[in-house]
Specification:
The protein is α+β, with helices and mostly antiparallel strands. 31% of the residues lie in helices and 48% in strands. It contains three helices and eight strands, in the order αβββββββαβα. The protein starts with a helix and ends with a helix.
Length: 180
């Protein structure tokens, strides 16, 4: 049995009966949580939100290393009538966003609204920390003797950050020399 198969088996066991889904992918293992998947009605307004967070885990069997690339995907939509400025307007909108790399996230949300029957109640109540599932993956990978390394997307982000810092320092030095 390969290290990847061992890690997959351990993670499936750890996340059984939880909000996480563990699946094999073309490149490794995906550990996904559906943070929020709600639809609720407020007066004259309907909103839908879907938010997924996935750890894409890749294992290099030869080097005995692994990477974790976080993938946060969010989409929200609304349809109905908006009373912005007191003037009724038909609203149809969809917004989607995605963030890849190393994403450290902590969110909590409670939302109350009126439903289609006029009942007022809680429609969202959740808390999420990306570090909870990341720690489980790291612990199990280390138990199997794997060492973590930075993923390609995170490495690229760090390179751009360092490049931006170098450019900022050069500009500051030039400005300092010119104003002297």
């Amino acid at each position: 049995m390969s290290t990847l198969e061992d890690l997959h088996r351990l993670l499936v066991h750890d996340f059984t009966d939880s909000v996480y889904v563990v699946e094999r992918s073309d490149t490794g293992i995906d550990v996904t949580i559906n943070i929020v998947d709600v639809e609720y009605y407020a007066v004259l307004y309907k909103k839908g939100v879907k938010k997924l967070f996935t750890h894409h885990v890749e294992v290099d069997e030869t080097a005995q290393t692994y990477t974790i690339t976080d993938d946060e995907y969010s989409v929200s939509w609304k349809a109905g009538v908006d009373l912005g400025g007191g003037v009724p307007q038909i609203v149809l909108a969809r917004v989607a966003s995605r963030q890849l790399g190393t994403v450290k996230k902590f969110e909590t949300r409670k939302t109350y609204a009126f439903d289609e029957d006029g009942e007022f109640g809680k429609v969202e109540d959740w808390t999420f920390s990306s570090e909870e599932s990341r720690r489980v993956v790291q612990q199990r990978a280390e138990e199997l003797g794997l060492k973590q390394k930075m993923g390609a997307i995170t490495t690229l982000g760090v390179a751009f950050a360092i490049g931006g810092l170098v450019i900022a320092v050069v500009v500051l030095i030039v400005v300092f020399l010119v104003l002297r």
